[in-house]
From TrEMBL:
Keywords: DNA-binding, Transcription, Transcription regulation. One of its GO terms (molecular function) is DNA binding. This is Putative DNA-binding transcriptional regulator YafY. Residues 2-57 form the HTH deoR-type domain. It comes from Cytobacillus oceanisediminis. The keyword Transport does not apply. The keyword Flavoprotein does not apply.
Amino acid sequence: MRADRLISIILLLQNFEKMTTAELAKELEVTERTIHRDMEALSAAGIPVLAERGKFGGWRLLEKYRTNLTGLKADEIETLLLSPSFQHLADLGISDDWKEARQKLLAAIPAPLKEDVKDISNRIHIDTSTWRESPREMKSFGILQQAVWEEKKLQIQYEKADKQTIERIVEPLGLVAKGNTWYLIAASDEKIKSYRVSRIVKSELINENFSRPKDFNLPDYWQESKQKFISSLPRFEVEVEISPSIIQRINFTGRFVQVIHMDIPKENGWIPASLCFDTEQEAREYVLGFGDQIMILRPVSLRKSVREMAEGVVGLYKENEVDQ
């Protein structure tokens, strides 16, 4: 509804002080022409919206203007009460603060809405951990948080994937939790990179401030970085037929294989499917692990290598039987 959108524009400008037409259009999922019409409507209604021209221009409210349109609807309150990841809150050291803030929010809810929203944590629970947690070492996490908030430079020792350790001075811009893994987003030599926190062997605050890039947006950077990483991943596609007895296991092991599509079962019950792996080696080991329950159709080279690998396993056990 347009009325809701106009209120949203006012609240956005109060919170962010200045936003461009493009930013407002993206946030509210409308066209830039719609934003211009909305601004005309707000101005006509007496809301002091100002347009600043130039490279760093945008829309803003007249200084010190504040609206009282802050009443929350029941649905909006429910979104604030949704339980975040307790592991992430604990990592950040704010789990107790979150619990206190939640109690204060519950206490401030008008009586008619309390019954509708107070039980949401008992209906929806969010758990970002994996089934089998690996021990996580984040010795430097507290220092990283301090550096991000205080905009202080950091000297870090970082262990790369090949186990080599490098030293680098970085400008920490933010922290991102991907699943239960934390990443430090930092600038170095005018390049912004992601560093896995568990690989930061040592970190030390440098008593030198830095200026954050004015156009840097952490969620946008992470989304773009993630898409680049995904598009750079190798792909090895395999056409197979799968025994119906292992379909559930195939669907459950999504961490190791991507099921591109499955066709309807054939007369014998077996299911044609397309699977995708990172490498041929992964495909070979995965398929062989299911024994005679997966039959490779294509590529032919994989059929040959799996057969050779299976023959090698049989030969190994025959040799052991002879030795015994």
